[in-house]
């Protein structure tokens, strides 16, 4: 991190980064515990995950207040301003990741026994991929590593592939076993939440890239840019 003539500025930026790192750790832990609650049908653990979401909300408020203070008192410019704005956006994204973990925990209360659902061998692996993306993108954020952030974005395709496979398998399973429709529908929502977590990890990666380089990543879905490449 570059040093500034005002030491308090460096301290504020360091604190901002620390809050983002703390939020990321809590979000990653929440996803992992929510999946454990789902697989083990642990309602007490699910309740803990739901209750702990308030910690992420409180940290997001701290980031908001600190970022506003930095902008108001320090008048950051160029690289510093990009970092503060990016961190504001990242905090909001991480908070939403925590919401998805909370949603998974809530769904687990509606599924009596996950082990009897044959298509779900893919679900823990999908969760592992999403958790790894969150962990690695927050590591890239701490290091302001634009290349690492860009590489994480490419990994989202694997999460999408897991979701598509689960969707097909669970849809077929519901047709063959009508009594499982309700529980299977909840599990489809769990898979969707994990897919959205992967999407949000890519959104964080885009903000890291912008904060590090001052440029936006090209839209991979933009045909004109794809042709230009």
Strand and helix layout:
Layout: H1 7-40, H2 43-74, H3 78-108, H4 122-143, H5 146-154, H6 156-176, H7 181-213, H8 223-228
Helix pairs in contact: 1-2, 1-3, 1-4, 2-3, 3-7, 4-5, 4-6, 4-7, 5-7, 6-7
What would your notes on this structure say?
There is one protein chain. The protein has helices at 7-40, 43-74, 78-108, 122-143, 146-154, 156-176, 181-213, 223-228. By secondary structure, the chain is mainly alpha-helical. It has a single domain, classed as Phosphate transport system protein phou homolog 2, domain 2 (Methane Monooxygenase Hydroxylase, Chain G, domain 1). The longest helix has 34 residues, at 7-40.
Low-confidence stretches: 1-5, 221-229
Percentage of helical residues? over 70%
Broad shape: elongated
The CATH H-level homologous superfamily:
Phosphate transport system protein phou homolog 2, domain 2
The level 1 CATH classification is Mainly Alpha
CATH T-level topology: Methane Monooxygenase Hydroxylase, Chain G, domain 1
Number of strands: 0
- CATH architectural designation: Up-down Bundle
> What string gives the helices and strands in order?
HHHHHHHH
The helix/strand class is: mainly alpha
Q: What's the number of structural domains?
A: 1
Radius of gyration: 20 Å
Our measurement of the CA-to-CA distance between the termini, rounded to an integer number of angstroms, reads 33 Å
Question: What's the helix count?
Answer: 8
Largest sheet: none
Proportion of residues in extended strands: under 5%
Quick check: average pLDDT?
A: 87
